Every structure is written in structure tokens, then in C-alpha cells.
Structures
1.
Amino acid sequence: MKTTRRMAAGIVLRRLLIITAVLLLLLIGKPVANRVTFAGATVGSFEIDGNLTVDHPAPPAEPIDWNSTPFPAALTTFTDATGTTDNIFGQGSKEDDQSTWVCTTGSAPPKDDVVSEISINGATPVAGEIAVRFFPVGGMQKQFLYTNWSRLSNNGDAHIDYEFNQADPSTNPASPGCPQLPRRTPGDFLISFDTQNGGATITVSAFTWNGSAFMPLSVGNQGLLWDAAVNTAASITGLTVTGTNLFGELALNVSDTIGTIPCNKVLFASMKTRASTSLSAEVKDRTRAEPLNFTIFNPAGANASGNAFGARIQDTLLGLNQTLPAATPASCTQGVCSSQSGPGSTSNSNQVLNAAVPPPGGAVLKANVLSASSTSTVDPPTNTATDTGIAESAGVNVVGGLVTADVVRGVATAQASGFNASFSSAGSAFKNLVVNGAPMNNVNPTVRSRQLCQAPGADRVEFSACARSSGWRNFRRRPRCQHDPGSHYQLVSDRRGD
Ligand SMILES: [Ca+2]
Ligand SMILES: [Ca+2]
Ligand SMILES: [Ca+2]
């Protein structure tokens, strides 16, 4: 042949999903309607009463407690073990001197052993929580921090720390013996919860690290700028154990005490216990350091969108550029599209029977059915935005038998909350796939799976499944975007010859 002929025939199945969840912090809150329905102490419209239950008829939603549903504040949770597998500090580790820290495993003293005993509305128990939100006080938005803890034994007072560090432990460890926790840098801060007389007296104090020592910060008056309580009833709903002074909670007006924490600030938070009130005392138990979550629950500001198509055929030689089935709705530029803003669900689907490209004959692509659907959902109970696209092709024949399949089915689900993004291709499958005359094993792709097959005759066939989704956190200032690898799922046949 005097010229090189090239035929490239295209894409049997391509799937692309983009999902974004945009959760906006509403700086202008509504006035609390009816606070008198709760007789106990509140700070930041949070029930500080030593239990987890909302103790007033709801609605109104305020004031809140740990089992408020939905819980209207960003939540960071900690779990912790007890017994010989517990992550603890070794002997001689002093709170105020990270050079002495040794992180090891073993049993913490029972009174200093934080344990996962807090089960919110029947969920898997946790050892402690930190929540952050803005709430109006006298018409001004103030930032509040709410925390709780649970421990193994009430045989002694509780000395619980919540430490907030700017360094990432994976790059800046606390000490050679304790790479699990972050090294302190100036501006880090510590909030301490100390009981006396079995919980009859509680002291909340705050400190900031100046580079070499913790300096005290004023937290103002109890009942006004902070309040705290332990459980005085031996049995409370949501605590998986029985006994007083095994659960504690505090609320702190951050804005008017230690200063508002910028929501775009990356902070790692951890819980620790101390042998006594003094900051030079030994530290005992510890949790993992977790990224502090600033995500605000606001499904009204979330959006889910995505699209799907059964086949896209592009062939420059023949001048083909077609997506099947056709756009639904007509404004959709890439197959079947759906989009949902705010709570609810939207779905679209379309199909084409006996597809032949180009007609007649379908030399590039023939298929009995090409169908596609896309469903977008914003779900307030789970605080997630989800798009699921499904593309199905039956009786597929590409380029005169180069690729044949009884069924090609692609399912892609992308999900984003304010903090996490995930992708799943569960449900995707090929049936009786034959490439260039060679039968291929049926393939069931999974998340981010990638398989490369070299078929006889040097034709290249690639199967891939990956996801692109984005979730946003720290919405108040500069959003930080989290990306998973992109979302497409495709079977490509590319044949070249003389
Ligand atoms: Ca309560
Ligand atoms: Ca531990
Ligand atoms: Ca523990």
C-alpha cells in the first residue's frame, strides 16, 4: 500500500461523573426561637447538663445536645481502646515537654483511660468528640467549641486535654519516640478539662504554646463564656456503661476567649489524659491526631451533578463525533445529565435501540441497546451529595468484530460530603467480551482498578475505572479542594495497520 491507512475506532463506553458538594457557612443565623423550654445551663445554645439527650420538646431545634438530629455543627470524632492494645504514653512522658514523649501501647490507669463508650443515637461508640460552629450572641456571630469524653473508671478525678496543633505529625513528629503526634509550634493551643471532688467542681482552662512553654489564656466566667459538666446520673442514654463521672462535656465561646479559629486553618486535634491538673504531670492515654473538621451542615448549599452515556464514537477519518443515546435534557452536552441543588433527587434516562454508526450497516459500532441514566441526590440525613450514572450496552460489535460483547455495563457512583469524596464502580461488568477474536475473561471492575491486557495482533485494549469527585471543606474563607483520581470508565480499541 502506498499510503498508511489508519483506522481508529473509538470508545465503546465512557463514563464521566463530576460531583461537587458546596456547603456554605451561613454567617447570618436565625434568632433562637424558644430557649426557655430548656431549664438547664447552656453556653452557645448547647445543653451542658452531663447527658447526651435533648431535654426539651423539639422543635425548636435549639438548644442542641449531642444527639440532636441532624447535629448542626462540624464534628471531629475520636475512638480509643482500653487494655494492652491501647495507644498510650510511656512512663516519664511529661505534658509540657515533648522531648520526653514516648508513644507506645499498653494499659492506661483506669481513671485516665479514655474509652469508646459514647454512642450517639445507636452509632458505633466513640471516646470523644469536638464540634465547632458559629452561633449568634446578642446579634453577633460567635464561634463555639463543644467537646465531650468518656473514660473507663471514676476512681479518681478526670484530667482531659484537647490539643490543637498546626503541624502534620507525618512530617513534623512530636519526638523521635512519638511520631504519631504532631510537634508543637507557636500558636498551638490546649484546652484542659479537670475535675475535683468527683466532678463536683470542674475547671476548664486554655493555654497557647509560645515555642517553649504553654502560656495561660483567659476563658472568662463559667456559665457565661464556658460551662462544663460530668454525668451525675449513673445511667444516661447513649453512654454504654454505668457510673457517674464517666462522661464529660464542655462548651466554650472561642471568639471571646482564646480568639476565633480561622476556618481555613489546618489543625490536628488529639485527646490526652494527665495524671493530675499540673501541666508538668505525666501524660497517660492518647488518641490519634485527627484533622479538625470545620464542615458546616448545610444541605441547602450542596449540589450533585453527573452524566452518563452508552457510547461516544469519534472517528476523524469518517468525520464521526456522536454520543449515544442523545442528550437528555437537550441542554446536556455529554449524554444523559442530572443535577440536584439542595435536598432532593433528580433523575434522567434515555436509550436508543438497534444503534448503527454510521448508518446503514454500522461499520464502526453496532449495538442492540445503548442506554444511560443519571441520578443526583442531596441527602440531609447523611449530609452527602451523590450522583450515580449507569450505562448499558447489549449486543455490542465494534469495527466489524474487532470487539464484541453480549453486555457492557458501567456503574459509577461519586459521593461527596463536606469533607470526603469517594467513588465506586460496583455493579460494572462485561459479559462474553471478545477482542480481535480472543475471548477475554469477564471483568468486574472495582474502585480505582486498572487492568491492562495485550491482545494478539498488537491491538491494545484497556479497561480502567476511576473517579473524579470533589468535596469542600473550610468554606468560610479559602476552600480547600480534595480530589480523587478522575472518573471515567472506558473500553478503548485502537487498531493501526498498513
Ligand atoms: Ca441534655
Ligand atoms: Ca489511647
Ligand atoms: Ca484508652
2.
Amino acid sequence: MRLYFVRHGIAEDLATSDFARELTKRGRRRVATSAKVIQRLGLAPREIFSSPRLRARQTAEIIAEALGCGVTLSEAVNFGFDRAAVRRLTKNLSADDEVMFVGHNPDMSLLVSEMTGVDVSMKKGGLARVDVIGRAVDEGELVWLIAPKVFDALQDGMKATAAKDGVSLATPEQKLPATAQPVHELIKHRWSPVGFDRERDIDRETLLSILEAARWAASSFNLQPWRFIVARRQNHDEFQKVLSVLREGNQSWAQHAAVLMIAVTQTNRETDTPNRHAVHDLGLAVGQMVMQALEHGVYAHQMAGIYPEKAREIYQIPSEFEPLTAIALGYRSEELDHLGEGQREREAAPRQRKALSEIVFTGSWARPAAFLREGKA
Ligand SMILES: Cc1cc2nc3c(=O)[nH]c(=O)nc-3n(C[C@H](O)[C@H](O)[C@H](O)COP(=O)(O)O)c2cc1C
């Protein structure tokens, strides 16, 4: 059995009671960083037992969210956590299981020291792995001990590798949504930046893959009512042409994108009757495009702010087609000096959404679906 011991992150000094002491902002940030590394390390605890004290619980919850598992609060992991408690909490688990405990010092350090015979001092937010030897669950080998500083360094390393490999871990922390339910990593990491890398182009293969993803979207009667007018930054004249179709507010940041495109929808069927679902289908195709882009580490920012009639004129778009939106694609840049203050603020602002109860109904309009509450059908 593999046991992981975590000491809670940095907490506020004062609160109404010791029980209610919360993680500080820095504490949360650091634990979130650790959680990402822990996830990357492939830890898969069957159970996370946490002390019910708020700072431990918050630490456990941040880790649990990253690993997609739950937290069990247990008094046994509170002050006084000891070998007997480890035995009790693991008695129904099998030898192959992994278990995590989130608690407090000095008990956590003392316990790990006693179990392993190694003098261990756990920092706030630190993590120790102890592999149980033989049948005695309260004796083991200290396999590693990670201090929060090391987590920070590992996370920096992961970011650098991610940037090199073109995957999407470059998303800044404040942009990661506090999703109420688990969602795919790509959905979690997607957002609409205005800060694009002014140097890094999107190579042809990547761009083709992004467009291919749009091509394979579902559409009503398979009419595929989408067209894309695309310009790469390398083709200066074409890029400027698309740029000129954007409203000025969008031009100011979209000029730094690597690719610009105009998304056009076919409003009529071949029979000349209107296709009421054309806009829906274009949105779906763009949705797929955006996710495929992020898989390559490329971010997308969609824009309604265009001059459609200008696009129609420049590109001689036929009347049954309608230029609807534009899309900027590019690698994200953290260097934002060239942007206006409002844009820099927007880049740092946390992302928000309506609650499920505001958008998911059953029975009649605006009645939140009953199943949104636990135990209801
Ligand atoms: C169809 C559409 C049109 C949009 N138009 C603009 C726009 O013209 N200018 C802009 O800066 N952002 C635009 N956005 C971006 C939205 O403001 C952004 O998606 C929204 O605020 C949610 O933020 P997030 O994508 O970072 O989660 C548009 C997004 C969509 C889907």
C-alpha cells in the first residue's frame, strides 16, 4: 500500500477559532500548484482522508479536484493523528491501494518519522510518500518527501515543457474556472486571451489540423453551412485584409495573432429555403476548432465585432452567405506591455459563468431541474 501524507498549506494566523483558519491566497495558490504536479506524477489515491479543520479540508479539496476524487473528513486525521489511526482508516483497503492523509504538524511529521525511522520535518503544503513494508500498515519506507518549493520548481518545468510541446498548460491560474463539476482538461483550460505571442507562427500542419476539426462537426442534414476565410501572419497582405474587417477595438489586439479568419455561414439550403440552424452549426464547427487548437497549445479568441458588409465587399461573398464572426488564433504571450490597460486587466480577470440552475430547466420555463440537487430525480 502506498500512503501519501500532506501537511495543509499556508493558513491565516487568526480566525474566530483555530478550526476556522482558512488557507491564505498564497497558500491556495501553492497548493493548487502542488495539485497540478501531483496530478502529473500520476498519484491515484483511492481515498483522501482529511482533518476537518478548514485549512486541511481546503488543501484536500484542491488536491482532490485536480485528481478527480472525493475527500472524506475524519477526526482521526485531526490533531493527534497517529499510527493507530492509520491502521483504522486503511483496514478495508487492499495492498494495491493508494491513500492520502491531509493533516497537521507536529503529528504529521512525527507520524512519518515514526513509521519510517527517518527524522522528517514536513513543511506546510509538503507531501511524503511512504510505501508500506510487509503486512504492518503502520511501518514503511520513505520513498520521497517533496517540499512546496520543489513543487513550484516542478510546475515551472512543466510549463516550459508544455510550451515546448505546444500543449495547453500555459493557462494562467486565475483563468482556470472553479468548475462545479469535473470537465475535460481542454474545456477547463480554454479561454479567450488578448495577449498573443507576436513572434510565434502556427505551422501549416497545426493549422490544417485545427481546420480539419471544424470540418468534422455535426450539422443539420449534414449541410455543413460553414466557410472560413483564413489568413496567416506570414502572408502580410491577406492578414491585413482580414484585419481591416475587424472593428477597431478588436484590431488593437488581434493584429498580434498568428492567424485571423472570418467565419461565414450559409443561410439558405440549396432549395432556397432558409436554414434555421445554420448559425448553430457554424458555432459547433468553431467550437471544435477552438478545442483542437488548444490541444496544440494554440488559443482562440472569437469576435462578433466585425464589419460584415465590408467583408462581403472585399471577398465578394455571395448573398446566401453571411459573414458572422472573426477568429484570432495564436500562442499566448505573458508579455503584455503592448496592450492597453483595460486589455491587461481583462487578461487577468477571473472567468465567471451562470450557475447550472440558471440555465438547466425541467418541467417549465426557468424551473431549475430537480436533479441538480443531490438525491432528486
Ligand atoms: C460569438 C462570440 C463573439 C465574441 N465577440 C467578441 C468581440 O468582438 N470582442 C472580444 O474582445 N471578445 C469577443 N468574444 C469573447 C467573449 O467576450 C468571451 O468568450 C467571453 O467573455 C467569455 O470569456 P472566455 O472565452 O475567456 O471564457 C466573443 C465570443 C464569442 C463566442
